[in-house]
Specification:
The complex is a heterodimer of chains A (138) and B (339). By secondary structure, chain A is mainly alpha-helical. Chain A has two domains: 27 residues, no CATH class; 87 residues, 434 Repressor (Amino-terminal Domain). In chain A, helix 1 packs antiparallel against helix 2 and helix 3 crosses helix 4. Chain A is elongated. Chain B is of the alpha+beta class. Chain B folds into two domains: 131 residues, Alpha-Beta Complex (Cathepsin B, Chain A); 150 residues, no CATH class. In chain B, helix 8 runs antiparallel to helix 9. Chain B starts with a strand and ends with a helix. The chains are: A mainly alpha (138), B alpha+beta (339). Chains A and B meet through strand 1, strand 2, helix 1 and helix 3 of A and helix 7, helix 8 and helix 9 of B.
Chain lengths: 138, 339
């Protein structure tokens, strides 16, 4: 890539740092240059966030239908997948999978609930009393 | 406790692990070290696509070696020992860190990105193989030199503990590392290390007889991309392409940036070994990087929903095959080269 081709698009990256790139200068040698972002990149990132919002919305829907447990909502909200949540909560993956259902969530002990609450950095009451409202405070 | 390692210089680099390797080795007196050199000596360039694995609900794909390998191999090739430690207890991890900082040793830490406070929220996914350097402690806050940031930052004790003990796949477990007794590296040794690393990287890229690894992996990915639209539906197939772009463009390595870093390394290697063949290969690797960039633009058109026909997926796949063929040619040639 030539130095003059380095994209300088305005993206979310611009607000906190700039990217280092290795580009060819006029003499044809490599040197470092800074870029404020590239729209192709930020579009991909945006797409990933839209997908997360969609998954959160699905989790809420399924919670309101009485199928999913609040853990599913908080898992999606925290961008976790099952192995990640299993790591944070110190549970086996197959147990986590079961706890995502409303039925087994009701049977969970306070001790286990507190592990999940800690993983999501919320209080145990917030987890228990989740009412299906998407709180953007997270 | 107040300690600042004053002779430590922050260096901004394209990739976090290269950056930590470069900064730490330079601190220990290897003034010739640069990011491309660290990446090249660390046998950094790679390609792998694992169709049976998922990474945050998308395909698992990587354009460089396993996290941690670059620093390991780069130091080993120059005869430098690296001390590493992982911890079960957060208390022990912090005590050890404090001890090292008081001794005046800057240390590298593996961290998770999700709780990393100074990153913009948009970039904080559960990625557990980010690297940064702790180079001091002041007013109860650790002083941090993160290679992808333009300037130094700081983290409170609790914040640093959070990121050092992130959980999930590739959990860092307080992983801390630093070079011990760095010998003087002579020119002859550097030349030898460069030769060996070139050979090794060429082997990984062109000689591994597994279709998902190395340059043949591009064609293999292409084959799968052709099937995605029918198999997964337009929406998920587009998201998968978006994930490929994000993997290829992790912060700082935009547009197959690893290819450009490697091309810069070949340029340096040509100078170190006084070998013009390498500067020609550097041009070729640059071409491969440019192709990856245009491939990213094509994929962007698909996941933005502007082009969603099977024809467009085929074009993306053809782009991958072209890159694969080019890299196969480059690295087969490099592998056969005699120095």
């Amino acid at each position: 890539m030539k130095k003059e081709d380095l994209p300088q698009d305005k993206t979310t990256l611009t607000d906190f740092t700039r990217d280092v790139y290795y580009v060819k200068n006029k003499e044809g040698a490599y040197e470092q240059a800074l870029s404020s972002g590239w729209s192709v990149k930020s579009d991909a990132l945006e797409g990933a966030w839209e997908e997360i919002d969609r998954r959160v919305a699905l989790a809420i829907e399924s919670f309101k239908a009485g199928e999913a447990s609040p853990i599913l909502y908080y898992m999606e909200k925290n961008l976790m997948d099952i192995p990640t949540l299993a790591g944070y909560a110190g549970q086996w993956s197959f147990c986590v999978k079961r706890h995502l259902k409303a039925k087994s969530f009701k049977r969970l002990s306070d001790k286990k609930l507190s592990k999940y609450a800690k993983a999501f950095k919320i209080t145990i009451e917030e987890l228990k009393n989740f009412d299906g409202n998407d709180n953007n405070g997270l | 406790m107040e300690t600042i390692i004053t002779d430590f210089n922050h260096i901004q680099t394209a990739h976090c692990e290269n950056g930590v390797a470069t900064s730490l080795l330079r601190y220990h007196g290897l003034d010739f070290m640069s990011e491309p050199l660290a990446f090249g000596l660390g046998v950094g360039l790679f390609y792998i696509y694992l169709p049976f694995m998922k990474f945050s609900n998308g395909p698992a794909i990587s354009f460089r070696t396993m996290p941690g390998d670059i620093f390991k191999r780069a130091s080993r090739s120059l005869g430098i020992k690296v001390a590493r430690k992982k911890f079960r207890s957060t208390v022990a991890a912090q005590e050890f860190l404090d001890k090292k900082v008081t001794e005046g040793v800057p240390v590298g830490c593996q961290v998770g990105v999700f709780h990393l406070k100074y990153f913009a929220k948009e970039y904080r996914f559960h990625f557990n193989a980010h690297n940064l350097i702790v180079y001091g402690k002041e007013d109860g806050r650790y002083l941090i030199s993160d290679p992808v940031m333009e300037t130094v930052t700081s983290l409170s004790v609790a914040e640093l503990e959070d990121v050092r003990f992130a959980r999930g796949p590739l959990a860092p477990k307080g992983h801390i590392y630093f070079p011990v007794n760095v010998p003087k590296v002579g020119e002859e040794q550097l030349r030898k290390a460069v030769k060996i690393s070139l050979k090794k990287n060429a082997w990984w890229m062109s000689q591994v007889p597994v279709s998902c690894i190395g340059s043949s992996g591009f064609a293999y990915t292409g084959k799968h991309i052709r099937k995605w639209r029918d198999k997964l539906g337009v929406k998920q197939a587009g998201l998968n392409l978006g994930q490929i772009v994000r993997m290829q463009e992790e912060i700082g390595t935009g547009g197959g940036g690893f290819r450009f870093i490697y091309a810069a390394f070949l340029e340096q290697a040509a100078e170190i070994l006084q070998d013009d063949r390498l500067s020609r290969l550097s041009e070729e690797v640059t071409k491969s990087g440019d192709l990856l960039r245009s491939s990213a633009v094509r994929m962007a058109a698909v996941y933005k929903g502007r082009k969603t026909e099977q024809q467009d997926f085929n074009e993306v796949a053809e782009g991958f095959e072209e890159i694969g063929a080019l890299e196969k040619k480059i690295f087969s040639e490099l592998y056969k080269m005699k120095f």
